[in-house]
Inverse folding.
């Protein structure tokens, strides 16, 4: 992939601020995500990542500042407007139906994206126009062999893979993955990394992840958030050698 600087910016925030009481949770955040890149957002406990990501997906309205997505100002718009514009946040759009198969769950996500609401349940279980693309997304995340498994019966890691498949089913321009490897063992994490590496050539990804091995493997660029402010943005080598980043993580290498 060519350098991120050569790509058009798909998401940009300017001086984004959000306060809760006297606490400035998002402190004049300037962030840009280039089309085609994997951009990781990391930070120690209490950094404000959840608050920032909630603003970037429309769940929280910023107090001041702007969010530009695909050239349009979406600041303060509701979450469904972000989704319809082409942003999919993994946990936001995935409400798994535990008693339905993996294929049916993804078919529902396809149906939601296409806007077909008639004969809701029947379509998701029988309509080839929904089931065929759903199967493709399951193949993409390595779950095709479990297509007919009930969602409640698969492992935690496979449910996280299913969430990614459902996010992909909305055909997003930007895939916002909120700690996709949380709670996974080493083997499951490695499999998710392989899946995301394959997706990285096709989708723009904003990745929030506590697993630094995964971040350094996947990300073209990394932004570090500390006390609501981005203190550094750069490639793996630049972030690893940045003294401000080292100081922020000294004594706390976990991520919330």
């Amino acid at each position: 992939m060519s350098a991120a600087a050569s790509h058009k910016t798909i998401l940009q925030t300017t001086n984004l601020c959000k306060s809760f009481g006297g606490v400035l949770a998002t402190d004049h955040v300037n962030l840009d995500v280039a089309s085609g890149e994997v951009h990781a957002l990391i930070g120690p406990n209490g950094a404000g990542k959840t608050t920032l990501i909630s603003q970037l997906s429309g769940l929280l309205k910023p107090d001041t500042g702007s969010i530009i997505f695909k050239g349009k100002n979406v600041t303060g718009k509701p979450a469904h407007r972000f989704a319809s514009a082409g942003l999919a946040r993994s946990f936001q759009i995935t409400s798994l139906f535990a008693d339905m198969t993996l294929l049916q769950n993804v078919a529902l996500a396809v149906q939601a994206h296409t806007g077909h609401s008639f004969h809701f349940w029947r379509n998701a279980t029988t309509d080839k126009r929904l089931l065929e693309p759903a199967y493709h997304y399951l193949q993409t995340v390595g779950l095709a062999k479990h297509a007919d498994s009930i969602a409640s019966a698969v492992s935690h890691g496979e449910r996280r893979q299913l969430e990614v498949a459902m996010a992909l089913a909305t055909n997003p321009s930007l895939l916002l993955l909120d700690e996709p490897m949380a709670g996974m063992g080493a083997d499951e994490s490695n499999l998710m990394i392989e899946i995301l590496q394959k997706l990285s050539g096709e989708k723009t990804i904003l990745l929030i992840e506590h697993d630094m091995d995964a971040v350094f493997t996947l990300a073209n660029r990394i932004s570090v958030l500390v006390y609501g402010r981005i203190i550094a943005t750069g490639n793996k080598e630049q972030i690893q050698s940045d003294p401000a980043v080292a100081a922020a993580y000294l004594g706390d290498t976990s991520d919330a």
